[in-house]
Amino acid sequence: MNSAEWPIRVESVTAAALTEWRTGDQLEPNRAGGWQLVYVRSGIVEEFCDDRRVPLRAGHILFHQPEETHAMRAVGEVPPEVLRVEFTCDGPGMDLFRGRHLLTNAAERSCLRLLTDAAHEVFVPPAAPGDRPVPRSEQPFGARELLALYLSQLLYLTARRMRRTRRPGPRARAEQNQAALVDGVRLYFSEHIDEPLTLAQVCRANNCNRAALQQAFKARVHLGPMEVFSRMKAEQAGVLLAQGYSSGEVARMLCYSSQAWFSRRFTALTGQTPGQYRRAPRPLHLCEW
Fold first, then answer.
1. Is residue 4 situated within a structural domain?
2. Are 12 and 91 in contact (CB under 8 A)?
3. pLDDT digit string, tens, across residues 195-233
4. Which of 77, 84, 86, 1 has its CA nearest to residue 35?
5. Where does a domain end: 135, 164, 193?
6. Are residues 155 and 67 in the same domain?
7. How far apart are CA 16 and CA 48, in angstroms?
């Protein structure tokens, strides 16, 4: 079946904005008049679809269908950024999106960046999370048409991928969930690289239990989560040492418990003391998997 037999027609985009939420903020229940696309650019949220709760991590999209009651809660320790696009759309192709949420691929994320930029040209971002964006009084030539085109492109890209791919079985879904968890935690690590994180903190921030987190990291990268964090921290330490900071300064900046502990960990991971590395820095590749 080709696209002429399975069309998707975006009629209008009624609201669109990328909003940063504070942890604990909530979007009150609302009934969708048309379709709504939700894209989590960073952080973690819980999206509610009628009586169904769907956790969404960075990189995931979800579609609310017309007449569905939806709400949202920002969770975790990273303030999430969420793009919401309300639109009216027709065509049997939209049946593919009913009740669906999925992890975006590179082509879809590229399209979402264009969609986000176009949304900013057409709508004034809301003053507070949960407020509705309003159209700008002056818009660049063709901005609204480009917004609809980028949305159509995203829908066709995603629909084509869903039609090409069989619905994953339990094992494939488990692997996808593990990959999403690892990606989300690595993003969390990078945003908290200068903090002395514990495994309990990481689990709370990413809404997972210790066993699931350790199992996901062992399966995907063959290392424990805190070992990955230690390697990421050492790579950042190498960047700071190369910039001329002393071992003591780096230890304080990255919240190591002491300069001696930093020196031991850095030497164990790189084969060089911080002083040796500072005199002859080179790229570190401690997180390639």
1. no
2. no
3. 999 999 999 988 889 999 999 999 989 999 999 999 999
4. 86
5. 164
6. yes
7. 19
